[in-house]
Every structure is written in structure tokens, then in C-alpha cells.
Amino acid sequence: MKSKEKLMSIGKAAKQAGVSTQSLQYYIMVGLVKPTSTSRTNRRMFDDKAVERIKLIKKLNKSGYPLRAIRELFLARAT
């Protein structure tokens, strides 16, 4: 990450991605998204790339893919 200025809080990241904060927290809990970094005060911070991933998760889920299938797809791509 080049600059800290590009990082945003969980609330702002959720808003930019068009999901609720609770949905984003759930995505984190089930392993679909990881915070880009954590602040000194332990706040989870996200960059634009993470927001794009959240948007993709929302789009796939809305088109009928269950979150479990999306997670498996992401894990398969990572290996």
C-alpha cells in the first residue's frame, strides 16, 4: 500500500461497495474479505481493491451464487 490516505474504515468501505456494515462484517467473518490493514487502534481498514472485491461478492451473491460457492471460487483462484 503506497499511502495511508487511501485506506477507509469498515463503514466507509461498506457504503462505497453498496452493502451494509453488518454484511461486510459477515464477509470478513466467513473469510470472503480481509482488511487491507489494521490501524494502531485496531480498526480494520480497507483500500479501493478491497472495495472492488466487496462489490464483486455482492454482485455474484445477488445473481444467485451462495456465499459458500463464492468463497470456494476465491480460494480456488488463490492457489
Fold topology:
Layout: E1 8-9, H1 10-17, H2 21-29, E2 37-38, E3 44-46, H3 48-62, H4 67-78
Antiparallel strand pairs: 1-3, 2-3
CATH architecture: Orthogonal Bundle
Distance between the termini: 22 Å
Q: Sketch the topology as an H/E string, one letter per element.
A: EHHEEHH
CATH topology: Multidrug-efflux Transporter Regulator, Chain: A, Domain 2
Helix content: 55-70%
Key terms for this structure?
79 residues; mainly alpha; Multidrug-efflux Transporter Regulator, Chain: A, Domain 2; 3-stranded antiparallel sheet; 3 strands; 9% strand
Task: Give structural notes.
With 79 residues, the protein is mainly alpha-helical. It is built from four helices and three strands. Strands 1-3-2 form a three-stranded antiparallel sheet. The radius of gyration is 12 Å and the shape is globular. The model has no long low-confidence stretch (mean pLDDT 92).
